[in-house]
Design a protein that fits this description.
Layout: H1 2-8, H2 25-34, H3 42-57, H4 60-68, H5 73-99
């Protein structure tokens, strides 16, 4: 009896209309023209100020030479990272060699 009911019964078909709103070329163009100019962040402003100060004082080359030396923070940090990575590889190789029979 169930087979005959399910065969005779047809579910109602409801069609829903979905409209997609598309932006026209003119509205996007007007949006770009009328858009406010994006404000400069504090970080960007500081960077520009620092660059202009280095240029005015003529210390850009001197700072570059100083940072390449042993006292440069970036070079020291890069050196410590390389040493740490090398030490990790040595320890990893040692652990792997102990695991293999």
């Amino acid at each position: 009896m169930r087979a005959s009911l399910s065969r005779d019964y047809e579910a109602p078909f409801h069609r829903t209309c979905v409209r997609i709103k598309r932006s026209s070329g003119m509205s996007s163009l007007l949006g770009k023209i009328g858009a406010k100019k994006q404000k400069m962040s504090t970080l960007e402003k500081s960077k520009l100020d620092w660059e202009s100060f280095k240029e005015e004082e003529g210390i850009g080359e001197e700072l570059a030479i100083h940072n390449r030396g042993k006292e440069g923070y970036i070079e020291r940090k890069a050196f410590l990272d390389r040493v740490d990575h090398r030490q990790f590889e040595i320890e990893r190789d040692l652990r792997l060699s102990k695991m293999k029979p």
